[in-house]
Amino acid sequence: MAMHAATTQKNTVYMNALFIGRNRLFISIFSALRFSITSFLPPDLNKKTQNRLTNLIIEWLPFNILPFFPAK
């Protein structure tokens, strides 16, 4: 059981590293866009906007990652 957990954790770390490596440009652009949009907003709107932008990227993420992991 411990071996399975360790293997799963290694696989998760590998997948995360692979995703970040292949999507570095996208992550950088999104971070810059989020910063530029939220830096000039009042604090109460700023938090709502950041949450909406984060939710948008989480919803779009599967479509971004799928082309890099073709079916076997």
Please tell me how large the radius of gyration is: 16 Å
What is the terminal separation in angstroms?
27 Å
Strand content: under 5%
Coarse structural class:
mainly alpha
Number of DSSP-assigned strands: 0
Q: Provide the low-confidence segments as ranges.
A: none
Helical region count?
Answer: 3
**Shape type:** elongated
Strand and helix order: HHH
- Describe the largest sheet: none
Instruction: Give helix % range.
Output: over 70%
Count of domain modules: 1
Mean pLDDT: 64
Write the SSE topology.
Layout (H helix, E strand, L loop, with lengths): L1 H21 L1 H15 L4 H23 L7
Overview of the structural elements:
- With 72 residues, the chain is mainly alpha-helical.
- It has one domain.
- The protein has 3 helices and no strands.
- The mean pLDDT is 64.
Salient structural properties:
72 residues; 3 helices; mainly alpha; single chain
Provide a concise account of the structure shown.
This protein has helices spanning 2-22, 24-38, 43-65. Helix content is 82%, strand content 0%. It is an all-alpha fold.
